[in-house]
Design a protein that fits this description.
The chain contains five helices and no strands. The protein is mainly α. Helix 1 (2-51) packs antiparallel against helix 5 and helix 2 (57-84) packs antiparallel against helix 4 (100-111). The longest helix is centred in the first third of the chain and has 50 residues, at 2-51.
Length: 132
């Protein structure tokens, strides 16, 4: 009879701590990495849009959409960094030389850039700060 209660207690504690680890560590870190992947694709789309020779109405709309996407990703990156990530992972990112705050600043600047050469420079800085 006592072994049954011990087994139930152990399984309850394993489930409780597993939930805590999944909810507060694994899901935020996975979300952060997903945002980084989305940033890469948004940067590629933005550079393709501003490098296009065609400057008609459709292309201006595309540039406008890509600009909005970059600003959205910048906000998501900061929200994830400040609100979701565990403190130990922030220290780990800092030790790797990754700086989402600086990358977010350059994302905002990239969203305001229509010159392709300047956008390339911003892209390189974002890649450097996110260690992509």
């Amino acid at each position: 009879m006592e072994t049954k209660y011990i087994g139930m207690s152990v399984s309850f504690l394993m489930g409780f701590f597993g939930f805590i680890i999944i909810k507060w560590w694994i899901l935020p870190i996975r979300g952060y990495k997903k945002i980084k992947k989305n940033i890469v694709s948004d940067i590629k789309n933005h550079l393709a849009a501003i490098n296009n020779e065609r400057r008609d109405r459709a292309m201006k709309e595309r540039v406008k959409d890509e600009t909005a996407a970059l600003r959205l990703r910048s906000g998501e990156l900061l929200d994830s960094y400040y609100d979701s990530l565990p403190a130990w992972y922030k220290v780990f990112l800092k030790s790797k030389g990754e700086s989402p705050v600086d990358a977010s600043k350059h994302l905002e600047a990239l969203s305001n850039t229509l010159n392709f050469e300047h956008a390339q420079n911003r892209k390189e800085k974002i890649i450097q700060f996110l260690r992509i």
